[in-house]
Amino acid sequence: MKEQDLVAQIRKKQSFLCIGLDVDLEKIPPHLLQKEDPIFSFNKAIIDATHDLAVAYKPNTAFYEAYGLKGWRALEKTINYLNTNHPNIFTIADAKRGDIGNTSTRYAKAFYETMAFDSITVAPYMGKDSVEPFLEFEDKHAILLALTSNHGAYDFQTKQVEGTQLYKEVLKTSTTWKNADRLMYVVGATKAEYLKEIRHIIPNNFLLVPGVGAQGGSLKEVCTYGLNDHVGLLINSSRGILYASNGEDFAEAARTKAEALQQEMKDILSKA
Ligand SMILES: O=C(O)c1cc(=O)[nH]c(=O)n1[C@@H]1O[C@H](COP(=O)(O)O)[C@@H](O)[C@H]1O
Known about the structure:
It is an enzyme of class 4 (lyase). By secondary structure, the chain is an alpha/beta fold. It has a single domain (3-271), classed as TIM Barrel. The chain contains 12 helices and 10 strands.
């Protein structure tokens, strides 16, 4: 998907909400466990109930890999369902990959071609030749981990290395890589106070911002410095939406949670 088409969807829906499809069979409504494919049934119900409120969906592959073949099948059915029924929705394979060049190329093919996602999350630790293979595909985007939402982010990412914090070095250096205009970055909502400096280094790139809801990040704080003139933000919520109820009304309850976030986004966009 072209970035300009994503921006058009954001303007049309007045939403920059990304719904994380992190399916946990221990948390989904028990009545779905009787279905032939509980994971896909759950995703389909969530997508059907929320697709007009969200511009992106982000299945975290760990939640599918954990169930082996049936998990992969459900992931494949989910991406095919989205691409067939909602081709204007941006899709993110949250797989956090990155390896030596020829291996990264295979990961890119797995998630851009075999599964036809628009983007994949990528770890920057192995450097340029591990990330550039993800940038070779037209209209596909690598979303580089920059400053993550978890506490461990302070172990390495904010450490001083040769006079600068490591995450800033990741931001600056990655902008020099081939096809860097296809890069987006992950910044945790719990790190909103860093966004002013981050926007200084990368004013134009989209940011995927997880950590609102269950992890305690604030949408308003993220928007203060995170927004740019083409919005430039995708705010992810997973558990806060998916598990609003585990009764028969789970999809309706998820919609109510998504709607509250979308309303907040609409207000923010009207004042921006
Ligand atoms: O890359 C991510 O999406 C990600 C990066 C990060 O720094 N923090 C983070 O929570 N995530 C993912 O975003 C989702 C957050 O889920 P909730 O906390 O349930 O909304 C999970 O799939 C995480 O793996």
